[in-house]
């Protein structure tokens, strides 16, 4: 029987919810590329309930215990003597989310003598040392596509929020004010602007498709060119590199993975080539931008706004400079953890576990490492030596 160690974020500050804003969720059967949504043989939760926090347990407890397995759930993952470190020594399976990642370093993987499977409930396994996983024969899997659309929606929300000056205008209402000029002196229409994405993978394309009806001019750069049918349908302008693209854009959204090519891609030099007053949205990984360069660009007006949900480090300390820089619309790392996304990645996590325990192959698109090598999605999108261990 297996010991499953699940690291989840803390419950809400006022306790686990007993009621929700809405009843149920729309049913999503498949994703835009035709991949079917996660499907487990049973479901141990109510769709629309909070699953990603400790008491939500990803809805796994009854399923695992009915099969004789042990489930340990904790949010305590850092520092000497953390529950995660204590429980890891004899765990067979580790599950965590990128929003509250259990960093599986080489040392931890070496210490976890029984560890055979590491599941990312969500997308992005850069909190796992993949080289160590390969060496120790640990399988790594994630729920590919489960929250890509959730992130794309967050990008659209942040784009409109920055351009239309939503956050400061809402602040005026909260503060009891009504100075219209205070609100509109930085407010523009998105219509007619040039919007570019760095990378047009699952999230990048979804952002382009969602922004097209706003009558914007769309640009993209990627390692590979999209099929000409998509370029024509959306009126896309392709650029060979981010450096070629950004001087043409009023809004830039970053949707590329963090690796050696993209780490600190948006440094002082690149930011200086952008139009004065560009908006930059980054929901990919914080280290794709130079933290101080972004602060300076907001202070100088090179950037009119910066928003996203990825930070370095995470959780961001209370005095993180990005909390107080001007004209930002940052959130904690939440874009991929809406209640809708949680239902999908909790189902996908159970689907992976059902396959694992029943000796059925895990879907290829969920695999990152298997059989001592990068596999499935991992073989296409991951490298064994990522730029940095950050989520
Ligand atoms: P995909 O793998 O679908 O797409 C990534 C795209 O980026 C691919 O087309 C890839 O090309 C391209 N790419 C890689 N390197 C470069 C480069 N140097 N310049 C331009 N393009 C490049 O990933 P997703 O769209 O699903 O996710 C993108 C990123 O978003 C993830 O890597 C992750 O960091 C982040 N993410 C954030 C979440 C959040 O909660 N904030 C949740 C989920 C993801 P190729 O295929 O040739 O490698």
Give an account of the 3D structure.
43% of the residues are buried. The strands form two sheets. A seven-stranded mixed β-sheet has the order 2-1-3-4-5-12-13. A six-stranded parallel β-sheet has the order 8-7-6-9-10-11. It is built from 14 helices and 13 strands. It is 30% helix and 14% strand. It is α/β, with parallel strands linked by helices and 391 residues long. The mean pLDDT is 96. The site of NADPH dihydro-nicotinamide-adenine-dinucleotide phosphate has 30 residues, from helix 5 and helix 8.
Summarize the helices and strands and which ones pair or pack.
Blueprint (H helix, E strand, L loop, with lengths): L2 E5 L53 H6 L3 E5 L8 H6 L4 E4 L9 H6 L5 E4 L9 H6 L3 E4 L5 H16 L2 H9 L5 H5 L9 E5 L3 H10 L5 E5 L6 H7 L2 E3 L2 H4 L5 E4 L13 H5 L5 E5 L8 H10 L2 E6 L30 H20 L8 E4 L2 E2 L1 H6 L10
Parallel strand pairs: 1-2, 1-3, 3-4, 4-5, 6-7, 6-9, 7-8, 9-10, 10-11
Antiparallel strand pairs: 5-12, 12-13
Helix pairs in contact: 5-8
This protein binds NADPH dihydro-nicotinamide-adenine-dinucleotide phosphate.
The site of NADPH dihydro-nicotinamide-adenine-dinucleotide phosphate has 30 residues, from α5 and α8.
């Amino acid at each position: 029987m297996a010991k499953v160690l699940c690291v989840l974020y803390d419950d809400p500050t006022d306790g686990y919810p007993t009621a929700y804003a809405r009843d149920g969720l729309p049913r999503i059967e498949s994703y835009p590329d035709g991949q079917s949504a996660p499907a487990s043989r049973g479901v141990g939760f109510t769709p629309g309930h909070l699953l990603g926090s400790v008491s939500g347990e990803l809805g796994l407890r009854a399923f695992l215990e009915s099969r004789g397995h042990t489930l340990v759930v904790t949010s305590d993952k850092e520092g000497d003597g953390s529950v995660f470190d204590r429980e890891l020594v004899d765990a067979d399976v580790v599950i965590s989310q990128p929003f509250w990642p259990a960093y599986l370093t080489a040392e931890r993987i070496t210490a976890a003598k029984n560890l055979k499977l590491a599941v990312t409930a969500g997308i992005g396994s850069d909190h796992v040392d993949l080289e160590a996983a390969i060496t120790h024969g640990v399988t790594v899997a994630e729920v590919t596509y489960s929250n890509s659309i959730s992130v794309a929606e967050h990008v659209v929300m942040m784009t409109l929020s920055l351009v239309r000056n939503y956050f400061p205008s809402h602040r005026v209402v909260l503060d009891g004010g009504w100075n219209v000029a205070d609100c509109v002196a930085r407010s523009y229409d998105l219509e007619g602007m040039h919007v570019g994405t760095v990378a047009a993978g699952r999230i990048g394309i979804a952002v382009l498709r969602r922004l097209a009806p706003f009558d914007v001019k769309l640009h993209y750069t990627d390692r590979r060119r999209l099929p000409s049918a998509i370029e024509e349908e959306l009126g896309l302008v392709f650029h060979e590199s981010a450096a070629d693209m950004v001087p043409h854009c009023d809004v830039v959204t970053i949707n590329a993975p963090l690796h050696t090519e993209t780490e600190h891609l948006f440094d002082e030099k690149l930011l200086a080539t952008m139009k004065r007053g560009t908006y930059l949205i980054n929901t990919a990984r914080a280290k794709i931008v130079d933290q101080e360069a972004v602060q300076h660009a907001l202070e100088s007006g090179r950037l009119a706004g910066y928003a996203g949900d990825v930070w370095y480090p995470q959780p961001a300390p209370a005095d993180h400079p990005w909390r107080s820089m001007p004209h930002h619309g940052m959130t904690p790392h939440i874009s991929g953890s809406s209640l809708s996304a949680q239902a999908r990645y909790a189902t996908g996590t159970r689907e992976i576990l059902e396959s694992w325990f029943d000796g059925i192959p895990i879907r290829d698109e969920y695999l990152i490492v298997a059989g001592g090598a990068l596999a499935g999605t991992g073989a296409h999108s991951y490298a064994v030596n990522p730029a940095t261990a950050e989520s």
